[in-house]
Records
---
Amino acid sequence: MSKYMVNLKINNIPVTVEEGTTILEAARKLNISIPTLCYHEDLSVAGNCRVCLVEVAGAKNLAASCAAPVSEGMEVNTNSKNVRTSRRHVVELLLSEHNADCTKCFKNGHCELQDLASEYRIGDHVFIDLVKPQDKVVDISSPSIQKDDSKCIRCQRCVRTCSELQSVSALAVCYKGDHQRISTFLSKPLHEVVCTNCGQCVNRCPTGALTERTYIEEVWDAINDPTKHVVVETAPAVRVALGEDLGIETGTRVTGKMVSALRHVGFDSVLDTDFTADLTILEEGNELLRRLKKALVEKDETVRLPMFTSCSPGWIKFIEHTYSDFLPHLSTCKSPQQMFGALAKTYYAQKKNINAKNMVVVSIMPCTAKKFESGRPEMRDSGYQDVDYVLTTRELAMMIKQAGIDFAKMEDTAYDSIMGDSTGAGVIFGNTGGVMEAALRTAYEVVTGREVPFANLNIVPVRGMEGVKEAKVMIKDVLPEWSFLEGVELSVAIAHGLANANKVVQAVRDGKASYHFIEIMGCPGGCIGGGGQPIPTNPEIRQKRADAIYAEDEGLPKRKSHDNPEVLHLYKEFLGEPLGHKSHDLLHTHYKARKRY
Amino acid sequence: MSRTENLVSELVEKHGRSRNSLMPILQGIVQEERFLSEEAMIEIARELNLSTADVFGTASFYTFLDTVPRGKNIIRVCKTISCHMKGKDEVIEALEALLKIKVGETTHDRNFTLLTANCLGWCHKGPVMLINDEVYPELTPHKACEILEAYMKAQ
């Protein structure tokens, strides 16, 4: 059934849109820009900030265009004197409750409120400063995220993000009137509550109220210390988003430029997390096959299926809090970041004849939760903290600017060896469905001796932005040692965003769904939509990054993890075999139950 | 099960587990325990499958849903403009002297908490105070103390 169409005029320009469209959406169709703060494409409409006010002919009051639906014959003016004055007052009122310490703020230059103050040329403060001194106490308890209430304009994007996208609700609107605050349970510090450190709130905070904890200075100090050998690893999703913060078009792959820039910044060795992503596939793929064998052949009832992936630290903390009875379902594999750290300070140190004590491992991640992960007590298997500092994509962009590098003019160079080689399977870890696809490319071939039966190795059913995806792969004509898998239809599921993860776990727990293997990423779109990625984010931006990841995969000569020559070499020289003794010590771990409430 | 856990479970039994039940459950706890303890809010979140921050967000919105410990009897003197003009300051001073506490505090024996409240809707008969659910209009400092002494005797 076709939808009822509505005709209206915005600034005298006629436009026809579907019934139910808001004035804001209709205006955007005409490329008329209306400022917004509480509105976000990924979230429900709140209509509380009032900067999107417009004039509707015949209406007594100005309307909030993000919340007002269009109607037939409506005449909207987005640029009358009344609109401009009212918007200016709204911005001034917000500023009166905002700690406008702009030059000291981490978000200086990246703040939506600052942009509006600039656009409306806000000069003298006409309203008195109402920022409460107690709100200036910044919560830095979390290693991932810091919360500064004095910068908060109570738009509630973070609250909606945490509940709608992540089903965590670590933050809620508390108290009322001029006492209203966005708060955790009983105003506890962030590290004491159910926050998963995913950083999706940071991605959507229009001001500097929620930002990542930054470690840029610590990294500069390490680089400048001649006694330290500083190694950097870059996650798959960074290379398709970093350009956005450095003036390059969204969706552009900047892998080679990034590698050059990292050398100019001063890292001693520029290596790739994709290498350990490939390694993860060999460990995790074999773990899955071992679990299947134990369950199907040995009828071992202690083996838990489905197996869940364990790459996403936001997801790990979520399951620790919410479904601790499901912890045995998690793959014991560490995330690629942590595998990298553990190997850097053992294998790499040995090969390069460096004392691990003098090594500093820095990882560049699209993620804020990785900052928490690197500090976990479980992540010290090299004898030291395996990964010393984690920087977000955004922080790396800042460092590149500080170093005076003209990023666009950087030439493309390749990663260093050892631990710098990767395949397309490692790259696609950045997308939702990518770990699953990489795992299937390898596991299917291990079991049958043949490539996965999908054109050009592209396992299309596990791709795309649908919240929960399912796929089935028939396993036939297996190699003799895998005969127990003959005729088994491997059933897999993929979820991204913790609200979707929640649905899948609930379905499995209630017995409504049955799978062998489930990939879960904590952030919408997977790592390309991670909490450490350039701001802003929306479905269109995430799609462009995802497309870039698949293009990067297709452009690589090797696209299956088990073809990575450096990984094969690592097994031969150092680890022995997948799931072997050394792997067990360095690459696998267990997690613990945490309080849900 | 602790006393609070029992109470929450009784209230959940009575009002149900939907989000709509949150308010009557919170009110039920305050009725019995005079305030919402951390334990009570955690239990409610668990029973209703809400986040604790959500429960705290709702509780902290309402002045009458306290999240800090209160005395057995709560005195709330209206502080809004009509009562102010009719002498609520003197009433408060007299009550503070009698109870030996300041506004916002609770007596050592935990029998009384003295608070102020926004408009109680008795502007025509101010100044007014509320002791628990009982309204006392047209107060003078003397009258307020007499009323309170009766409560003190009853303890």
---
Amino acid sequence: MAEVPRSFRLLEELEKGEKGFGDGLCSYGLDDKVDDIVEMEHWVGTIFGPGHSVHENRIYSLKIYCGKSYPQIRPEVRFSTRIAMNGVDPHTGVVNPEAVAVLREWKPSYTLMTLLKGLRSEMASPHNKKLAQPAEGSMFDN
Amino acid sequence: MYKYESDSDNFMDEDDEFVDYSEEEHDFTDSEFAMDDENSDDNDTEDAGIAHDDRPRRYAETQATQPTQTQNTFSADAGDFEDDFYGIDGAEFEPVISSRGAKRPWEVDFKVYDPDELQAKQEAIVARMEPVLATSRDATTLLLRSYLWKDEPLVEDYLTDPERTLTKAGVAVDQTRPCIQSGDSAFECKICFSEGSDEEYFAPSCGHRYCTTCYKTYLVGHVLGGASWRIKCPTPKCNMLVGEEGARLLLAGDEESLARYNTNLTRSFVNDRDSFVWCPAPNCKYAIECHVPRSALRTTVPSVACICGNQFCFGCQLSDHMPAPCHLASRWLEKCRDDSETSSWIKVNTKECTKCKSTIEKNGGCNHMTCRECRYEFCWVCMGPWSEHGQHFYNCNRFNEESSKEARDSVSETRAQLERYIHYFTRYNNHEQSAKLARKLLATTEKNMEQLQRELTLSWIEVQFLSDAVDVLSICRSTLKWTYVLAFYMKPDNQMIIFENNQSDLEMATEQLNDLVENPTNHGAIEDIKRKIIDKTTYVKSRWETLLSDTTLGLQENRWQFVD
Amino acid sequence: MAATKRILKEVERLNKDPVPGILAQPIESNIRYFEVYMDGPAQSPYEGGRFKLELFLPEEYPMAPPKVRFLTKMYHPNIDKLGRICLDILKDKWSPALQIRTVLLSIQALLSAPNPDDPLANDVAEQWKTNEKLAIQTATQWTKMYAIPPQ
């Protein structure tokens, strides 16, 4: 297999995201508020809170950073919408990569969609789904 | 599969033949092209070397409740027909045949094809056109395909300017047969850059050679993407198509790709033509040929029945919507989609008993309801007491213009519009739900039949009357459902009253039959019930025929005014 | 492997017989990944600028087209903010008989002849159609601001 360079890999992910694939429960796109978008480093993601949990009917925004060595090196993630969740810093929303499986066991074949789906299932896991949550719609200062 | 009788050596002969034809243009136009349905296809298929009897034919089985088909030509004004009606299959189109005599007014001729028959049909058309155009079989096929099988414009263009017609269609003027060769030391494949006399290459008639491996990879890629005859030479700006002969040469031995290629060819044969559609039922492999043109769809509902059992409209591929024409049916369905979310009136599946207020869910198709709590008997549609409906009086089918006027006086116009819509929708939906329940009823009926067979030692054929009755019920439900759509868009006048009387007669008879089938024990001894059901079935069927005949003719005569 | 052989030959020919105004070199670690420099064509608003592109030959190449994008910011109706290029031969008009060389020549030709009727960057195309003079002025400005001056 020819190794796909970072930029073309991300362009491919972007095009898929623009077409809105998947079940619509997770979505993502480039963060166009950033000046230098040609590098495709800054992304935004959205997760619809999983059912049968405290997150049901809530919408969560996230910021994702894909560094120069993505997808070999895992992306960095933080929640923009306030959330109480194991492995998420309650003050900054930063996701501790060692605390969530999809980042801890990151593989270069994973995509931004894999990441968001992984976080969503983490939110529905037994140790997260019943945690008391901040007011709906409140945001981290980031 | 294809037999190539001519090779490049007798190309000149073909050219001579072509000159002959152009001189005798008038002759062959008359004898071969003025095709109509009476013209048998025997000659044509025999010319093609295909024995008539070898061609598998399949006809829609006509069942008791399905429209029967005859050889008669379609009854609408022939002047309306578009090109395709007189098109290339005039001679081959041999619609479903019935021994039942004359075609009934609402029926249209159609024919069901399986994929093998579709392939045979394409081959037959090509074989017939080959001598007319005097081109190679490969070129004839490509010409026909790029003219979407419309033979008349093709012949006209070809006879006027053969070179231009070929080039425009993507067919090489020099009809050298494609071949696979090697041994050219100057050869270089522009795709993989392999070179030399050892390289085996594919040489099509446009002259752009590539190595066999690359050409095949290129072709298979397109075939897997769904393409067939529209695959072009890989050379940029070359518009020549890869013909079937070349494609089969390249794909030889690759059974999977060949099968896919054939499937794609047949798919485009159906998709490229106005007179063919695929049966829309999921996973159905059949296609239907029918020559009702688009322009006739406002006055005709071409209901066709696939071998798979799916009864649908040839014009729009929705489920059968007789007697409402396509444009009214789609308008109605769109309206229902738009209104269903905003209005709260779709509470039609549950109602309260007017007497004791307990909630009642309709679980059978009959409108004669008996409240489980208080035994009150009433009509599901109007909620009035059943006793008032009696045998003759049935006031549930029409929108009462008097009470609607009152409504308009007291409430706004939009409210009245909604009331009117609700009126028709309730009845439409009622028949839809009842039709679904009729399917359930069939299961119960079958059980009843088994019981009857056991208890009365009747033979299977003697209890067949029950399932016949259910068949008639479900087709009447479907027709009744759509009569309310027709009525919704109809402007009230005397003609509409006549229509509503027919509708009412059918509706009443249908409800009575439903009641008989659903609750047979309420109606006396078994021999009695059987006679009653058989009589009622016959009667309902005759009412159904009357209604459909009348609406079909009425639509063709512009008997009714429709809103906008 | 046939595709690799073709790529090696293409590279060899690009080196032996380079396209004037275009430099394309594979990046050492990946034979399918190219760094490209393209000079803006004469008599275009891109004249006097050297533009950087990246080009990747996917696994299916040459049956599938190469992937190309500009890395230098461009003001052009058929090139978007991410440098993606709207060009038929990079999509449905691709033919396996085309090459890296022909693709780059076509891109260079697109710089000379923008096609605002088939836009990828809608705001730029709009400007190009309503006020071509101003659009060309902006493109010239961007060339000065973002492109590399030729050596």
